[in-house]
Amino acid sequence: xxxxxxxxxxxxxxxxxxxxxxKLGMSQQGLSQALSVKDVKTGLVxxxxxxxxxxxxxxxxxxxxxxxxxxxxxxxxAAINSNVTMENNEVLKERIKxxxxxxxxxxxxxxxxxxxx
Length: 117
Fold this sequence. Notes:
It is a single chain. The protein is mainly α. The chain is built from 5 helices and 2 strands, in the order H-H-H-H-E-E-H. It has helices at residues 3-12, 17-24, 28-34, 42-52, 86-115; strands at 70-71, 80-81. Helix 2 packs across helix 3. It is globular and about 50 Å long.
């Protein structure tokens, strides 16, 4: 997701950069800079979702709904028949990246807790 896309989504919902920066504990300039990139960091999207009490999927719009995939045949991954477009494909890749990061963080936490015993 680009910073411009994220800004449009936030402005469409009437969230101000100044107010969001305050909720995130950062300066308006810092948030504006974070939103001026081609590929917004997933951590920023997660932080925005947290302070706004929204699901992360909110930032990807209605097109990110993945409930339209159906499994055919033997239900293997290769048998999945869906109408995922290239735009949705990018959203799915971003979601996978977010989930992989989350799993890695959980694994690190588990290792830290295990080493303290």
